[in-house]
Amino acid sequence: MKKLLMSLLLLITAWATVGAYDFMVDGIAYNFNSDGKSVTVTYGDSYSGSVTIPATVTYSGTTYSVTSIGNSAFYGCTGLTSVTIPNPVKSIGERAFCYCSGLTSVTISNSVTLIGNYAFMSCSSLTSVTIPNSVGYIADMAFKGCSGLTSVTIPNSVTEIGNLAFSGCSGLTSVTISNSVTLIGYEAFSYCSSLNSVGIPNSVTAISQGLFHGCSGLTSVTIPASVTSIGAEAFYGCSSLTSVSIPNSVTSIGWDAFYRCSGLTSLTIPNSVTSIGADAFEKCSGLTSVTIPNSVTSIDGWAFSDCSGLTSVYNLATQPQNINASVFSNVPIASITLFVPKGCTSEYGKTPVWQNFGKIVELPSMPGDINNDSKVDIVDMNLLINYILGLGEIDDIQSADLNEDFNIDIKDLNILINLILGI
After folding, report:
1. The pLDDT of residue 365 is above 80
2. Closest CA relative to residue 194, chosen from 141, 151, 162, 165
3. What mean pLDDT, rounded, does the chain reach?
4. Closest Cα partner for 53 from 39, 35, 37, 33?
5. Distance (Å, rounded) from C-alpha 196 to C-alpha 193?
6. Listing from the earlier edge strand, what are the strands of the sheet with 229-230?
7. Beta partners for 130?
8. Strand 49-52 and strand 56-59: pairing?
9. Within its chain, how far is the Cα of 158 from the centroid?
């Protein structure tokens, strides 16, 4: 119903923008532009077959430059099979080729700087498209529903990919995104069910809402250290995703972020994350182990609901979070082992929900965690330096003896520095 309403709205909008053309030459209709020197291709009689748009057109003895493809110019031309857009065309208007279901190829010159909203929406026979290096922005729904599209390369001129830009491109198997892109809109690649891997450039700072929603074929994804948040429903229904590495730059994981990622088997949430949203990992039935860092202070309802395969939970928080029973709804926690930091079993044993786990087991000292706060950082380094210089004491010698030679010295400090740097 929702799709039908959208189609009707687009149809009404398209026909509202289609008017009588000013003139026609060789079967292509044009409107004069306000500068009196150029023209825009517009809707004429239904276009079909192969169309080559000329760079210039002569009418009544005057030659005009063709500088744009107008809104809805080829809308619904199901018989159109190919189109060539030459220099000096600068823009492709909204809905320009929308619903051209027979269009198999399009050649866009590098004079084009703008591809409008819905420009190629539902061009289901289009198998490949080369976006020229002159385009700076891929607009909302520009290629939505291009189910025949198998690959796409985003050039380094593009800084932003619009909302739903490639949503429903079910044949898309690979996408290359240049590191010039700083923003990827919501659901930009949603329902690209054949997409199996994708690399997000380190210029992107957020995984937007629903970015890969319904990408059931996605097996791996690389999230760069530039990303600070994973949006709601970002990987919703990515049932083939077996592993994901979340960098320690991420501070929040949104609701439903990994909902129904049934292929995930283990998960380590980095020590930068402070909140886990509602339903974030709900129905991740393949998940057997999860590690919650000391930094997490908030876990919303149903975050790990129906994770029926869980056998162990590692909670590194020295002070257990106050959570609702729904966080582990339909999870047999009475038969699951909960691992907690050294000296924290008593606190967990009297905290609601955590106290219901089958076993609560203390973790051994973490190598390098000299102050026993469940993280290894510069604070531990300072403590170790002071100990080596004879300026302080260490309570947990085992955590400081990193090379296990029963001496605390500069060798241990070098190892600790590498641990902190991730080397």
Report:
1. no
2. 151
3. 91
4. 39
5. 8
6. 206-207, 229-230, 252-253, 275-276, 298-299
7. 153
8. unpaired
9. 16
Q: Which residue has the tokens 């974030």?
A: 280
Note whether 333 and 308 are within 8 A (CB). Answer: no
Q: What would you measure as the largest C-alpha separation in the chain, in angstroms?
A: 95
Identify the pLDDT of residue 345: 95
Q: What are the distances in angstroms from CA 370 to CA 355, 393, 407?
A: 27, 10, 15
- Rounded to whole angstroms, the Cα distance separating 142 from 121 reads 6
Residue 384: phi and psi, rounded to 5, are -65, -40
pLDDT digits (tens, 9 = 90+) for 379-398: 989 999 988 888 888 877 77
Q: What is the rounded distance in angstroms from the CA atom of residue 155 to the CA atom of residue 134?
A: 8
Type of residue numbered 256:
D
**CA atoms of 353 and 369, how far apart (whole Å):** 27
End-to-end CA distance of the chain: 53
| Token representation of residue 64 | 């005009």
Residue with tokens 């009404």: 12
DSSP E strand boundaries for 269-348: 275-276, 289-292, 298-299, 312-315, 337-340
